[in-house]
Amino acid sequence: MKKVTLLLSLALMGGLLFANGSSETSARAKEDAGVDYTDIEGPVEFEFWHNYSNKARAGMLEQAVAEFCAAHPNVKIKVSNPGNYETIAQQIAGAVAAGKGIPGLSTINVPRVLNYAASGIIEPLAPYFEANQVNKSDYYEGFLESVSDKNGTLYGLPLGMSAGVVYYNKTWLDELGMTMPETWDEFKLWCKEFHEKTDKPAFSFPYDFNYMNTMVLNATGKDPLGDGTKSILGEPEFLQFALDLKDLVQSGAAIWTGVKINSAAEQLNLFKIKELAAYTDSSTDCSSIIPASDFEVGTMIGFSKEKGKPAISTASGSCLVIYGGNDQKVKNAAFQLAEYLTNAEHSSAWSVETCMFPVRKSIVEKGLMEETYKKFPGSQTMFENTDKILPKNKSTVMQAACNEIVLTIGEIAKGNEADPAAAWATLTKKVDQILADAL
Q1: Average pLDDT, the chain
Q2: C-alpha closest to that of 411 among 250, 267, 277
Q3: Is 56 left (phi over 0), alpha (psi -120 to 50) or beta?
C-alpha cells in the first residue's frame, strides 16, 4: 500500500507518468452503455476543494456554490480549502490510495492536468459537454487545449487562468518620446536606446519558467521542448537568445533580477520606484501593480519574432476537474457546478476580483469586461488578447525541463559561464534526458 501511495503521489505531482491510453475508449464505452451524464435527481452530496486562501476569492466561490445548491435543493456541496496546489495533490493521492474521501470536484493547476489524466483518476469531459448541451466553442480554444492531453481529450474546465504579460511605465516612455517595441529585434534596440537616455535598465528578465519560456517562444518562434519527447535546443536560435540576453544585461540595458524562481518581488519594487521601465510578471498581478503605481501602466502580451506576427503567452493558473471514483450522479452534478462557476456572469465577476483572464469569448464580446478595464486602467490590451494565450508543451515534465533552461539562461546572462556554447550543450543533454525519462 505504501508503494502504491508513493507512485500515485509522484504521478499527481508531476514526477511520474502512468500509461493510460484507454481514457477515450472508456468514455466511449460508457456512452455506448447508455450512461446518463445529466441526471442529478435524488440526494447528491460531494466535496469541492479549491486552492484559494484569499478571503474574497474563496467567498466568491462559496457564494456561487450556495446559489447553485439553492437552484438544485437535492444537491449538497461542502466547500473547503485544504491548501495550495501541492497540498491538494497530496490529499488527492491519499484519498485515491485509500479509496475514500475523494472530492467530486477540485481545482488543480494547469500543468498537473496531464498527470492526473494519465493516472486515470479524472473524467474526460467531452460526453458531459455534449449531454448537457454546453457550448464548448464559447470557451477560449487556448484554455481548453491547455487542459487537454496530447490527443486532444479534454479533462478540465478553465477557471483561474493566468499568463505572463509585460508591464511598462507608459508615462515615463511618453516623456521620453518612446513607445514599446513589437518585435524581439526592436526590443533589443529599444532597451539600449532607453538605457542611453536614462542610464537605467529598460527591462528585467524573469527568473521564472513560465515567463522566460514565453519570451523564448516569441523570440525564436519555436518551442525549445519540440514535440515533448526530444528538445530542439541544439538549433542555433536558442543559444543566440541567451547570448542576446547576456549582451543586454552586461551592457546595463537590462537586468536579471531575483535569486529565487517564481519571485518577481524585486522587479515590482524597482518598477514602482522608477528604476525599471518594464518587466514580465503574471497577469493576475495586474490587481496589485496598477493600483500601487503612481504613473500610467501599460500592458502587452510580449515581443514577437517578426512584424505582423502577434506575440503569444502560455496558460497557467487553475482549472476544475471531476474525479472518476465517484457515483455518476456526483460526477454529473460536479460538471454542472463547474460549468456554472465558469459561465459568463461568474467568469466576468471573477476577472474583476482577481485580474484573471475571462474564460469565455462571450464575456469580451458582450462588453462584460468593462468593469475590469475601469478598475484596472491599462489592463484592456492584455485582456483583449486573451485569444493569444496558448497551451504549454504537453510533456508531463515540461516544468522541470523549462526550469533547467531558465537556470542556464540566467547563468549565461549574468556572465557566469566562461563558455556559453559548452554550457548550452550540457543543458541540451540534461533536458533531453529529463524528457526521455518521462516516456
Answers
A1: 89
A2: 250
A3: alpha
Cβ atoms 420, 246 nearer than 8 A: yes
Residue 10 grid coordinates: 509522484
Helix (H, G, I), strand (E, B), or coil: what is residue 264?
A: coil
Which strand (E) or helix (H) includes residue 425?
helix 420-437
Q: Which three cell numbers stand for residue 327?
A: 457515483
pTM over 0.85: yes
Other Cβ atoms less than 10 A from the Cβ of 25: the count is: 9
Contact 37, 327 (CB under 8 A): no
- In sequence order, what are the beta bridge partners of 205? 256
pLDDT in tens, 306-354: 999 999 999 999 999 999 999 999 999 999 999 999 999 998 899 888 8
Bridge partners of 76, per DSSP, are 45
Give the Cα-Cα-Cα angle 124, 282, 56 (nearest 5 degrees): 75
Residue 327: CB partners within 8 Å, gap ≥ 6?
44
User: Which residue(s) pair with 164 in the sheet?
Assistant: 282
Place of cell 466511449: 28
Strands (E) in 130-202, as ranges, are: 157-169
Question: Tens of pLDDT along 108-118?
Answer: 999 899 889 98
Q: What is the DSSP string of 313-359?
A: EEEEEEEEEEBTTS-HHHHHHHHHHHHHHTSHHHHHHHHHHH-PPPS
Number of Cβ within 10 Å of residue 437's Cβ equals: 12
Residue positions counted in the chain:
439
- Give 284's contacts (C-beta < 8 A, 6+ positions apart): 160, 162, 317, 354, 355, 356
In contact, 199 and 253? CB cutoff 8 Å:
no
